[in-house]
Write a structure and sequence with these properties.
The protein is α/β, with parallel strands linked by helices. 29% of the residues lie in helices and 27% in strands.
Amino acid sequence: MHDVISVKNVSKSFGGHAVLRGFSAEIPLCGITVLRGSSGVGKTTLFRVLLGLEKPDAGEIAGMSGRKPAVVFQEARLMPWATALENAALGSDEARATAALEKLGLDESLCLLPRELSGGMKRRVAIARALAYQGDILFLDEPFTGLDDENKRIAARAMLEAHIPILVITHDDAEAELFGEYCEIVID
């Protein structure tokens, strides 16, 4: 496996609108990498291409083959009929999910359905699901949406304790700094 994800001249359009135009970068697979750029420049699209959820119109990507990414999308994407614990255990098991939920301060909410959770609680369940999955790289798209400052710190600490490379999209300098030292890639 590569120690970087190599993105070479990747382009992606939707309905004739170019979202990524010949984007190239070497994304290190160690520590924290923050992807920055103004709204609409293609950060989420780049994540989706890296994850294989979208196919690029042009360009190539190396370094993702054989990887097991864990993902926190912009939306919580919880199953409405499943409890917090069942949602967090998707892709893993109950023991790992319980541990992740407890680490994120949700130990009293394991049996609650998404409709019974606040927005911040739903976000923490989504983060717990990604952590319980035990991937070898963590993709985070605006991971702290809806969290107060204390829960942002708790979530960042839990993610760092996974000891895997983290790729994060955030518009907020203070949120990026929660991860400590990081490298930055700007998409424009």
